[in-house]
Specification:
By secondary structure, this protein is an alpha/beta fold. Helix 7 links the parallel strand 2 and strand 3. Helix 1 packs antiparallel against helix 2 and helix 2 runs antiparallel to helix 3. It is elongated, with a radius of gyration of 22 Å. It starts with a helix and ends with a strand.
Length: 205
């Protein structure tokens, strides 16, 4: 994921100056492939010495770099699997405690997988769903499907009162979708829900 790393670098370059700016440019280039080689580490160390950057300056710069990468990744308020892997790799390569990342992304990681639709599970809906022909799907149609699957429908997303959120756009930033991500409630698309079978799996994120 070189592109988001480069984005973090550009953000830094707008706010840094002097020796830190020069160091950031080389760091950005070294980490762009998510691997800092031995030669690149030597180059970074030598440059830091030439610029008069102390070990603390370098540590602070690495931490700030990771923090800015988190900011870039959170632009849509969700961290997907690829973004999470990138953050883990960059933090490790730069020797930054991963808690710098986890403290900011808690509740915002989209975990892809599946969920078994068991009778009695509670499902909530959000967004304007559409039929394949482009006509709007009424909410009572979705509720009827839920009833046929043995599910209970609820109006709001909560930690203990909702087991699944079905969204017209699973990646939207609606209040219910954001709440589901925050609480760890699985989110499924309308398409996946409509084609699901009672007791069977449904793809979630």
């Amino acid at each position: 994921m070189p592109e988001p790393v480069r984005l973090a670098g550009r953000r830094h370059r707008r706010r840094e100056y002097g020796g830190v700016l020069v160091y950031m440019d080389l760091l950005d280039s070294a980490i762009s492939d998510l691997v800092i080689t031995g030669a690149e580490r030597v180059g970074l160390s030598e440059l830091a010495a030439e610029l008069g950057l102390s070990p603390k300056d370098v540590t602070d710069t690495h931490r700030r770099y990771v923090d800015e990468l988190v900011t870039a990744s959170l632009q849509d308020d969700v961290i997907d699997a690829n973004e999470l892997a990138t953050l883990e790799t960059v933090a490790r390569e730069l020797g930054v405690d991963f808690r710098v990342v986890t403290n900011r992304i808690d509740g915002r990681v989209a975990v892809e997988g599946s969920l078994l639709l068991e009778p009695g599970m509670r499902v909530c809906f959000t967004g304007s769903a559409m039929h394949p022909d482009g006509t709007q799907m009424r909410r009572n149609e979705l509720e009827s499907i839920a009833n046929g699957l043995g599910l209970l429908t609820v109006k709001n997303v909560s930690k203990k009162g909702c087991d699944l959120l079905v969204a017209a756009d699973p990646m939207s930033q609606s209040g219910k979708t954001r709440q589901a991500r925050k609480l760890g409630v699985p989110v499924a698309s309308v398409e996946a829900f409509v084609s699901a079978e009672a007791g069977g799996p449904i793809a979630t994120s």
